[in-house]
Amino acid sequence: MRYDARWSHRHPAGRLVSLGVGVGALTAAVALGGRRSRTVWTAAVAPDVALLIGITAAPSWKQLPPYAVRPYNVLHSPAVPAVLLTAALLARDRRLAVAGLGWLGHIGWDRAWGYGPRGRDGYVL
């Protein structure tokens, strides 16, 4: 069976799972780093830097311009927090773990609200 990244933000069960992952990861990040940790909140907001790249040229609030789609998809990929969490494990670095969990929390939260990868046209797939 082939994994379909769209399932997590289109199917009600996928949204519920994504919500659990998002809330769980953010809760773990706060527990590990503290409520006032800059690392937690920077990592939890960092994926949306891609939105800032294209916000001024966006045709509408639902559509990103084509040049902002790839950065958005990369920054909203679970691979980014996976790399951070793997590096944290290998280096035994708490801040990397906090960053990875905060980033994963952002992605889970977005998917729970129906925001997933974007197509070439800039719309959510």
Give a brief outline of the structure:
The protein has helices at residues 7-10, 12-33, 38-45, 49-54, 66-75, 79-91, 94-112.
Features:
125 residues, mainly alpha, 0% strand, DUF4260 domain-containing protein, DUF4260
Largest sheet: none
What is the overall silhouette? globular
Our Rg estimate from Cα atoms comes to 15 Å
Enumerate the spans where pLDDT stays under 50 for 5 or more consecutive residues: none
Q: Briefly note the structural class of the backbone.
A: mainly alpha
Mean pLDDT score? 90
> Number of DSSP helices?
7
The level of helicity is 55-70%
Strand content: under 5%
Count every beta strand, where a strand is a DSSP E run of 2 or more residues.
Answer: 0
| Secondary-structure element series | HHHHHHH
Measured between the Cα atoms of the first and last residue, the distance is 20 Å
Describe this structure in words.
This protein has 125 residues and is mostly helical. It has one domain (8-112). Helices cover 66% and strands 0% of the residues. It is built from seven helices and no strands. It has helices spanning 7-10, 12-33, 38-45, 49-54, 66-75, 79-91, 94-112. The chain is globular, with a radius of gyration of 15 Å.
Helices and strands in order, then pairings?
Elements: H1 7-10, H2 12-33, H3 38-45, H4 49-54, H5 66-75, H6 79-91, H7 94-112
Helix pairs in contact: 2-7, 3-7, 6-7
Protein name: DUF4260 domain-containing protein
Transmembrane segments: 12-33, 40-61
Keywords: Membrane, Transmembrane, Transmembrane helix
